[in-house]
Write a structure and sequence with these properties.
Layout: E1 17-26, E2 29-38, E3 44-51, E4 57-59, E5 65-71, E6 75-85, E7 92-101, E8 104-113, E9 131-132, E10 148-153
Antiparallel strand pairs: 1-2, 1-9, 2-6, 3-5, 3-7, 4-6, 7-8, 8-10
Length: about 160
Amino acid sequence: TERRTTREYRPNGGEVAVTDVGMTLEDGTVTVNGNAANPGLGAVNGAIVSIGETEYVEPAYPAREYFVGTIPESEFVRFDVTADVDHANATTVPLTVTYLADGDPYERTVELEYDARSESDESDGGSGVPLSVVAVIGGSVVIAGGVALSRRRLRGRD
């Protein structure tokens, strides 16, 4: 007797990891910058990094979102996005990455810790206040240093 088995093969495609993330505050606007890296074994296409909206955070001009585009395997692209933050009440700043990997759409959001205590007096001449942030988004998820990650796969995207 002949036996056959069918197995769906899904190669290890591209994924996005956000690395070297930093925040600065200048003239009342928070700028989040970092690298959108692809540690996967395939290209990532149509990648967009954006600030999510919450009760205390909203995307702000001039860079509500940043179109990263294609990220080849083992490569990265630098991004900068801006937000208006209620400094007295915000504890996190949501950063969302949407992209296509192996033809499938993904959306991943990370809650970056917003340490309002680091926002010392503005008598430093408005040069920007660094806020420590670590974030990783990807297939193998690492949660570190107050970073909470949520992941969901998009279905039926318009």
